[in-house]
Design brief:
This protein has about 150 residues and is of the alpha+beta class. Helix content is about 15%, strand content about 30%.
């Protein structure tokens, strides 16, 4: 995302502004999440494109944080972005996530973290479809999917 676009996202915060409600020691997170999820959610890793279990998920339901269960996204905002990661136009609730400037890898991007536990979810870009024009590009490893109950 271009530096100018980063500033246009409304709830941009610095890392110091994020005070998670769910706090665990590094050892507790590692034990709770396992190695792959720990790498993504706690160390900011990224799963390889097209490898995630939710890339092609078209079921109706809710996507929750894989670390703390916070409701993050709803299936009706999911779209096929062609990026290799599950993509959404907006969070289920704006305050469910926090957006942080990320200048790693020599580029300016906007990182998306779970507001409740501080877990790394992915990044948001300004090349998504209407109505928001945003693409929340998430790691499947950072999410749990809960299908809507039938009947």
């Amino acid at each position: 995302m271009a530096a100018a676009a980063v500033g246009s996202l409304t709830n941009m915060s610095s890392h110091a502004d994020v005070t998670p409600e769910v706090v665990k020691s590094d050892e507790e997170w590692r034990s709770h999440l396992g190695d792959e999820r720990y790498d993504v959610l706690r160390r900011g890793g990224t799963e390889p494109p097209w490898s995630g279990r939710y890339v092609h998920n078209h079921d109706d339901g809710t996507y929750r944080c894989g670390a703390c269960g916070n409701v993050l996204f709803r299936s009706e905002t999911k779209f096929e972005s062609g990026s290799g990661w599950p993509s959404f136009t907006e969070p289920a609730v704006a305050d469910a996530v926090v957006l942080l400037e990320d200048r790693s890898h020599g580029i300016a991007r906007t990182e998306v973290r779970c507001r409740r536990c501080g877990g790394h979810l992915g990044h948001v870009f300004d090349d998504g479809p209407a109505p928001t024009g945003l693409r929340y590009c998430m790691n499947s490893l950072s999410l749990d999917f809960e299908p809507f109950a039938l009947g």
